[in-house]
């Protein structure tokens, strides 16, 4: 913010001296902010790609929601050493963890919300110290973290932990003044704690926000105001919404658009409109066709459609989650999606759900979507895909995403 104050003062002085100076446009402000981030070694947008560790590049990453919820430092170090050895640049870690009743809580948690108030958990065994360690350990290895600040679902205490205390429904959460005040208190707690860390890739408003049956205006207005609030706290890090990429009639021109679930706006999300919010730096897309009523091959259409929209808006897009469960032909299905990303799009990056490994402590946060480290499957979908994405980076000349 200091940078822009200096710029405004300079414009005033030049104007007073008789020189005509145009006020910086929004695009100029955005470009200036990106240059400032880059100079300080924070990840930043570079056209439709990202500058990570001083290099504009495509990247492959993964999801490790559990990294800040592990009790053992050794487990954190093991996972991050394997992620680093794979060549993953970015991983996604839950920075939320709420409970309404700490007396019965057995997991790591970061805040308590109940009738007596809002409290942050500084306990070194099961509180914010666990996320502290994960972020510091990632930073030592040059790995960047996407940190969602809220969960749409109940796992680890999502929107439900706010509505349990402040009333209303899941749908009214986004406009409930008391709930939003508490949520912004939590945002301030997390963002100000880590705002100087270059290990943070971005802040994410919510994991898969939905407002089923609502007008898309509700999440749009919430995303606009909340992302602006985060930017007021931290001008150096990027912000994303964390949505699944649901489309509405706004995007009816997209090749392959159809009148079916993913395109109706039923979940209250308009990907294209939200992506155009100035304080949203890039778009996110998730892919679970088996749960949405589509076949696996449709996943390639979904990928290309969001690449099309990213190009239309002029911002990067990350395929942030995609997975196929055990028992399916994952090498063919996920491998096919990865081939589409590499060969037919300029998506800036993609992140499979999820990285799996054997933790020494015996803690087991993995589901049946995990792709386990050092397996034949991992060699293709993990290490092999990292190499394929790196291959798109080519030589040393500046990269421009065009397709």
How large is the count of helical segments?
A: 12
Rg of Cα set? 21 Å
Q: Please state how the strands of the largest beta sheet are arranged side by side.
A: 11-10-9-5-4-14-13-12
| H and E order | HHEEEEHEEEEHEHHEHEHEHHEHEEEH
Structural class of the helix and strand makeup? alpha/beta
List the uncertain runs. 1-24
Mean pLDDT: 91
What attributes does this structure have?
16 strands; single chain; alpha/beta; 39% helix; three-stranded antiparallel β-sheet; 15% strand; 403 residues
Task: Describe what is shown at a glance.
By secondary structure, the protein is α/β, with parallel strands linked by helices.
Question: What's the SSE blueprint?
Answer:
Layout: H1 2-16, H2 26-39, E1 44-46, E2 49-52, E3 55-57, E4 59-63, H3 73-86, E5 90-92, E6 98-99, E7 111-114, E8 117-120, H4 128-140, E9 144-148, H5 159-166, H6 177-194, E10 200-204, H7 216-233, E11 238-240, H8 271-275, E12 283-287, H9 289-292, H10 298-313, E13 317-322, H11 330-344, E14 349-352, E15 355-356, E16 371-372, H12 376-391
Parallel strand pairs: 4-5, 4-14, 5-9, 6-7, 9-10, 10-11, 12-13, 13-14, 15-16
Antiparallel strand pairs: 1-2, 2-3, 7-8
Helix pairs in contact: 3-4, 5-6, 6-7, 10-11, 11-12
């Amino acid at each position: 913010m200091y940078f822009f104050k200096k710029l405004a003062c300079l414009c005033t002085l030049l104007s007073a001296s008789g020189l005509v100076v145009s006020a910086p446009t929004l695009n100029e402000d955005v470009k200036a902010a990106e240059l400032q981030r880059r100079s300080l070694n924070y990840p930043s947008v570079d056209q439709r790609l990202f500058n990570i560790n001083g290099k504009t590049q495509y990247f492959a990453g993964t999801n490790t929601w559990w990294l800040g919820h592990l009790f053992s430092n050794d487990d954190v170090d093991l996972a991050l050493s394997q992620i680093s050895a794979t060549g993953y640049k970015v991983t996604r870690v839950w920075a939320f963890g709420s409970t309404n009743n700490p007396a019965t809580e057995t997991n790591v948690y970061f805040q308590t919300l109940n009738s007596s108030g809002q409290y942050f958990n500084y306990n070194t065994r099961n509180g914010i110290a666990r996320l502290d360690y994960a972020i510091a350990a990632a930073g030592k290895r040059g790995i960047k973290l996407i940190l969602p600040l809220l969960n749409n679902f109940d796992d680890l205490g999502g929107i439900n932990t706010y509505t349990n205390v402040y009333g209303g429904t899941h749908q009214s959460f986004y406009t409930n003044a008391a709930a939003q005040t508490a949520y912004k208190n939590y945002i301030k707690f997390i963002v100000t704690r880590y705002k100087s860390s270059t290990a943070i890739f971005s802040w994410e408003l919510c994991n898969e926000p939905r407002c089923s049956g609502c007008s898309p205006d509700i999440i749009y207005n919430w995303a606009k105001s909340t992302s602006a609030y985060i930017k007021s706290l931290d001008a150096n890090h990027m912000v994303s919404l964390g949505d699944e990429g649901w489309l509405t009639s706004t995007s009816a021109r997209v090749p392959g658009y159809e009148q079916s679930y993913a395109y109706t706006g039923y979940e209250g999300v308009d990907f294209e409109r939200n992506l155009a919010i100035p304080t949203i730096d890039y778009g996110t897309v998730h892919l679970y066709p088996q749960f949405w009523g589509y076949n696996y091959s449709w996943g390639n259409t979904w990928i290309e459609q969001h690449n099309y929209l990213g190009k239309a808006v002029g911002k990067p897009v990350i395929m942030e989650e995609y997975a196929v469960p055990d028992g399916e032909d994952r090498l063919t299905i996920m491998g096919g999606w990865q081939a589409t990303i590499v060969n037919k799009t300029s998506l800036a990056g993609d992140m499979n759900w999820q990285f799996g490994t054997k933790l020494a402590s015996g803690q087991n946060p993995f589901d049946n979507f995990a792709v386990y480290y050092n397996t034949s499957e991992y060699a293709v979908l993990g290490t092999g895909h990292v190499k394929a994405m790196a291959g798109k980076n080519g030589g040393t000349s500046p990269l421009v995403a065009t397709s």
